[in-house]
Amino acid sequence: MVKEQGTGKREQGTEAIKGKRLASVENIAGSFVERPKAIAALRAQIASGSVRASGLAAEYYASIEQKNPHLNVYLSLTKERALAQAARVDDLASKGDPLPALAGIPVGIKDVLVVKGAPATAGSKILAGYHPPYDATVVSKLEAAGAVLLGKTNCDEFAMGSSNENSAYGPVRNPVDTERVPGGSSGGSAAAVAANMAVATLGSDTGGSIRQPASFCGVVGVLPTYGRVSRYGLIAFASSLDRVGPFAANVRDAATMLSVIAGHDPHDATSSPAPVDGYATESDKPVEGMRIGVPAEYFAEGLDAQVRAEIEKGIDALRSAGCTIKPVSLPHTKYAVPVYYLIATAEASANLARFDGVRYGYRSPVPATLSDMYSHSRDEGFGAEVKRRILLGTYALSAGYYDAYYRKAQQVRRILAEEFLRAFAEVDAIVTPTAPTAAFKIGEKSDDPLAMYLADIYTVTASLAGICGVTVPCGATSAGLPVGMQVLATHFGESKAFRVARAVEAAHL
Ligand code: GLN
Q1: Phi first, then psi: what are they for 419, rounded to 5°?
Q2: In this structure, how many other beta carbons lie within 10 angstroms of the beta carbon of residue 61?
């Protein structure tokens, strides 16, 4: 049910989706998977006038209206802004003017990125009622390229989680099987593409939050190199790890999206001036002669046998396409999960200190003292997982423990990064499973944080090393659940990762 929000000044032009009681699973017949058309095909239709951007936006809103009560993908819609943008694109098209790369393409934005005037919750109650006064750089870039912003997608609270069950606004359901999680933390953005509730979306990835949900929902997800994409307007989780990247239904579309959002941003000192490639064109190049590394550490205990079998078929497909497959060694991989959870929680405890009930969102009603206001607002506003991480992170940073935990974790992080760089001296890309299992059931791991953390085993190392990667659908389990292959490349090696991912996609496993 998509309801109009009140007409309070700050809320004009946006709609929050209320009454998000999920339809019961018994009522759901079949899966919600329905892939969008490719960006290039849609754009050509818009340019020729056979499809109107306004009509397309209306179609997507109708699809959202129908599916959102079942899947809980969108938290709010930006209809007024979307329709105004679609009208501008239609106007350009009718004049025969050249159209930008994403003209009329309906996109969704993870609710950790700010869109001017639209609610930005980060999946948290503590940000309820916050309407940022500016657009994230990636949002401005998408719009400048003609994209139509449909709305904000659901996610784990402050992007902390691997299942989307940590959202204060209810879990997202996996469009492939609604009893299962879509992955997380960018579960809404992955599910939106799988269910054709957007043609492409943006997410954020700190330790796997784009790659793992993309793999669980059977879509493509990109972890750009640290610094490749501006984070101005991203609500911070762990600043030395956070990245923004796209989801799309195919590799070429994901590459097109990355070319639009990448590049230096004067508002983000951590963004790189390195030139941005035409990633879609680069992804068209053949893989023949490329050297592909396979690390034994990613095929060890804990990897589901069916997932392993599908990834092995993917590796065979690369061999058939003319790649040389070589073993590579990443022996410190086993330390990546503890190192990640030390660094990520330490940085989160610092970043989340700003949510104190004073400047943003939720404030506890009638606290007795100033100190009560801070503690009650934080206690009532944050969910259990976020509190767990703030406590862990504060502990790891506290005097006397800093050297034993945070500094040590940073030292091991350096070793993990060096191991990757040594491997990339020998190979063009490294392939691994994206996750050790396919999508798990809602509730299956929610009472066991350690089991949930361990599920990040294949994604956190690339996050710590700052390198880039693409996850691409690579077959399915016997139950029809998608499997994803992670293709990693060195810093600013996105073009190579896209090429390899295209070859896996072309094998139709
Ligand atoms: N699942 C990981 C975590 O919970 C990664 C989250 C992310 O990448 N934002 O921290």
Answers
A1: -60, -45
A2: 21
CA dihedral (201, 207, 212, 213) positive or negative: negative
CA 190 to CA 201: how far, in whole Å?
Answer: 8
The reported pLDDT for the residue numbered 367 is: 76
Closest CA to 57 of 115, 103, 20: 103
User: Which phi-psi region, left, alpha or beta, contains residue 27 (left: φ > 0; alpha: ψ -120 to 50)?
Assistant: alpha
Q: Which domains does the chain have, with CATH numbers?
A: 36-283 (3.90.1300.10)
User: Using the 8-state DSSP alphabet, how is residue 22 labeled?
Assistant: P
Sequence length of the chain is 509
pTM attached to this predicted model: 0.94
**37: buried, middle or exposed (CB in 10 Å: 19+, 13-18, 0-12)?**
middle
Beta bridge partners of 243: 205
112 in Cβ contact with 204 (< 8 Å) = yes
CA separation, residue 55 to residues 84, 105, 143 (Å): 12, 11, 18
- Residue 15 — pLDDT band, cuts 50, 70, 90? low
Instruction: Compute φ and ψ for 371, nearest 5 degrees.
Output: -65, -40
Given 54, 63, 163, 209, the catalytic residue: 209
| Active-site residue, 54 included | no
Catalytic site residue from 67, 79, 110, 152: 110
Quick check: 23 pLDDT over 70? no
> Ligand 1: residues within 6 Å at CB?
159-162, 185, 204-209, 237, 344, 456
DSSP string, 172-239: PPBTTBTTB---SSSHHHHHHHHTTS-SEEEEEESSSTTHHHHHHHT-EEEEPPTTSB--TTBPPS-T
The mean-pLDDT minimum among 3-7, 122-126, 211-215, 265-269 falls in 3-7
Query: What are the tens digits of pLDDT across the range 220-237?
Result: 999 999 999 999 999 999
Q: Is 334 annotated in the active site?
A: no
User: 13-27, 45-59, 338-352, 467-481: lowest mean pLDDT where?
Assistant: 13-27
CA distances from 374 to 157, 292, 379, 383 (A): 19, 52, 8, 15
> Is position 387 annotated as part of the catalytic site?
no
Q: Does pLDDT of 345 surpass 80?
A: yes
